[in-house]
Amino acid sequence: MFAVRNALRLGSRLSVPAVARRGCAGASTPVDDVVNGLTEDQIQLRNTVRKFYAEKLAPQADEIDKKNEFPGMREFWKEMGEMGLLGITAPVEYGGTGLGYLDHVIVMEEMSRVSAAIALSYWRPL
User: From what superkingdom does this record's organism come (predicted)?
Assistant: First the structure.
């Protein structure tokens, strides 16, 4: 417990630059995928879904939260399906993408950065 308190005190004395936020809250936290050990395919997946969510979800995210309505919901989920993001962990022989749970987490993380409410609709019990 004392170690945690000391670390917190030390952290409060350090000069840490503010991080801009991306998404509906204006959050933008850079992610170092190389440090996190992601493969090139996983980095490409993150970049692809980040761009998709920025184009298709971010412009509506604030309004979705305020009104609790998502007017383009069907089209959004259809596009996600066309990209192979629905059933991402299901085997290919069953119509899934055949990717792993880390890939699922990457998709979920990027969606959550833009709209946590819609990301909760994407998440499913594993």
Answer: Eukaryota
- Cα separation, 9 vs 66, in Å, equals 38
Residue 84 identity (one-letter amino acid): G
* DSSP 3-state of 94: helix
Q: 88 with 104: CB under 8 angstroms?
A: yes
| CATH number for the domain that contains residue 108 | 1.10.540.10
Residue 4's SS3 state is helix
Rounded Cα distance between 125 and 102, Å, is 15
User: By the 8 A CB rule, do 86 and 80 touch?
Assistant: yes
Range of the domain at 37: 2-122
Cα–Cα distance between 123 and 126 in angstroms, integer? 9
> For the chain, what percent of residues have pLDDT higher than 90?
58
User: Which residues lie closer than 8 Å to 55 by C-beta, 6 or more apart?
Assistant: none
Predicted structure pTM score: 0.71
